[in-house]
C-alpha cells in the first residue's frame, strides 16, 4: 500500500464477509486496491497504480479484547526500475518485501495506533545496484469518530539504510504527517475521505531533499 490509508477500513475489515475496493487520486496519480477476506480475521490485498507498481499482500488481525487489536501485514511489490526506464530499457523490475506490525487501542469513539514497518527493496539486475535499500519506519496515529465523520492524524518517521553501489544515495531520515477527514456513512456503498500529507526529509532521504505536500481524494467501496 503506497498511498492508501486503512483508517476507514478498520471497521470494515472486522467483517470477514465483506470485500472492499479502495481508490486514491492525486494530481497525475491513481492507485486502486482490493481487499478480500480469506477467513476469519485474515484478508488478501491486491493493488496497482499509474506508476506501474503492483502489490500483493496478506494481513491478519487478532482481537486481544474489545479494547486492543494486533495487526500483521506482509506485502510483495513490483515496479519499474527507474534507472533502466530513464535509459530506455523496459521490463526490468525492482522488487520489495514489506512487513507492518501494529497495535490499536480503542477508547469509545476514538482509537490510537502504533506500528513499525520494515521493507527490503532490491533491483531486478545485479551488475549495478541503485535501488538496493533497507527501509524502516515507526508510526503513531489517532482517530476520533463523530456521528457523521471521522478525523485521523498520523505521524511517521522513516529511516533508510543504503545497500546499493551508489554510496549514501538512499541513506537518511524523514518525517511524514497526515491528516484525513472521512465520512462515517456510505453513498451507494462508497465511503469517501480526503487526505493532506507532508513529507519532510532530514537532509536527504532516498534521493529526495525537498519537502513535499500532497492532497488526495480517496474512498472505499464496500461489498458483502
From TrEMBL:
Keywords: Signal. It comes from the Bacteria. InterPro entries: OMP/PagP_B-barrel (IPR011250). SUPFAM superfamilies: OMPA-like (SSF56925). Residues 1-19 form the signal peptide. This is Porin family protein. It comes from Vibrio ouci.
Amino acid at each position: 500500500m503506497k498511498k492508501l490509508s486503512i483508517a476507514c477500513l478498520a471497521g470494515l475489515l472486522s467483517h470477514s464477509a465483506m470485500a472492499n475496493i479502495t481508490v486514491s487520486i492525486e494530481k497525475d496519480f491513481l492507485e486502486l486496491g482490493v481487499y478480500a477476506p480469506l477467513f476469519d480475521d485474515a484478508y488478501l490485498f491486491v493493488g496497482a497504480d499509474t506508476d506501474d507498481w503492483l502489490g500483493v499482500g496478506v494481513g491478519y488481525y487478532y482481537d486481544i479484547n474489545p479494547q486492543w487489536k494486533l495487526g500483521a501485514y506482509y506485502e510483495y511489490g513490483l515496479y519499474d526500475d527507474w534507472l533502466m526506464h530513464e535509459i530506455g530499457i523496459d521490463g526490468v523490475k525492482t522488487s520489495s518485501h514489506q512487513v507492518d506490525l501494529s497495535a490499536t487501542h480503542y477508547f469509545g469513539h476514538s482509537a490510537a495506533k502504533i506500528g513499525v514497518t520494515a521493507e527490503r527493496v532490491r533491483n531486478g539486475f545485479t551488475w549495478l545496484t541503485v535501488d538496493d535499500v533497507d527501509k524502516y519506519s515507526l508510526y503513531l496515529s489517532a482517530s476520533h469518530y463523530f456521528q457523521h465523520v471521522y478525523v485521523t492524524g498520523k505521524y511517521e518517521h522513516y529511516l533508510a539504510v543504503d545497500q546499493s553501489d551508489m554510496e549514501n544515495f538512499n541513506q537518511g531520515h524523514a518525517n511524514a504527517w497526515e491528516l484525513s477527514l472521512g465520512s462515517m456513512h456510505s453513498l451507494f456503498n462508497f465511503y469517501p475521505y480526503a487526505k493532506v500529507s507532508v513529507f519532510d526529509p532530514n537532509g536527504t532521504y532516498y534521493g529526495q531533499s525537498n519537502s513535499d505536500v500532497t492532497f488526495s481524494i480517496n474512498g472505499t467501496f464496500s461489498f458483502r
